[in-house]
Amino acid sequence: MATSVVRYTHPAQPDQAHWGVLFDRRIAPLSGQHATTADFIRHGQVEARAMTAAQAVVALDEVTVLSPVTLNQQFLCQGINYGSHVRESGMDPSNVPFNTFFTKASSSLSGPYDEVVRPAHVQLLDYEIELGLVLGTDLTAGTRVKPDQLHEVLAGITIVNDVSARDVQLPQVQFYKGKSYRTFGPTGPVLLLLEPAEWRRWPELHMRLSVNGQVRQDAYCRDMLHQPHATVSEFSALQNLHAGDLIATGTPAGCAAKAPGKLPMWVARHFLSEPTKWKMFIKGGLRNPLYLQPSDVMTLSIRTDDGALDLGQQRNVVVQG
Prior knowledge:
Blueprint lengths: L2 E8 L2 E11 L2 E4 L7 H7 L1 H6 L7 E2 L4 E3 L8 E5 L3 H6 L11 E4 L5 E2 L5 E3 L6 E2 L2 E7 L14 H4 E8 L2 E2 H4 L5 H5 L5 E2 L4 E3 L12 E6 L2 E7 L7 H11 L7 E3 L13 H10 L2 H12 L11 E7 L6 E11 L1
């Protein structure tokens, strides 16, 4: 049975983060003090999996839930990993056969209920619900992971919102810059530790993101173009991965940013200068009501339809920086 792990602070010790296992609305605190996600995965998993509801003595409503991924861990990402998002971005999935990778600054990680701060110079703020994979071991050499070996390399899964400043990311062609402002990576609330057999159910995970109660994104993880085993394999061939590192696996359709259509794109490509094209993009974006505004509330959930695997719910309010 999957284990729902949370990282939190208590008002009595606001500077001391704790780990515990969530049972409904109560937490069973772990005895160990694990400074990082890697420390918890290496030294706290056994205790966490053995906890029972009888040990849940801390009320969830009395604590502040933090990101289960600590700031020292790598924040790795996949782009255009759902055909629906590829199409809304103006491309044909059959013409994008490769796995697209980028990174976000680890300092963008924030809690599942923290405010998302829109920087003063950003006008086109967007959301992206994603399934986060959390590494369970160090991979310091290229490792070929088979579909039935996910439990050997991954510890668990979590919710990620890849918040993006489209008026920085796209005109400047800088994914890292446009996606790495502080608070642009709400993560959690839980790190769901899966049992080996449960990893087979990742395609059944149902992702939903709403803004002010209106559903914007609604899809299943099975729609990924590049599956987790292939992604971990390719990342490990490129660089070292460590226990606790986070891989965000891309987002489905429903983002605020969308391609303007084939004809406008053809005209822009052949007749407009780059500065003019992006000036028009931003001007059009300002008329798009889907972009996030201060006081907007984003609500995200990922779970199987039968509720057996449930990653909880994020709720973040946008504020002006």
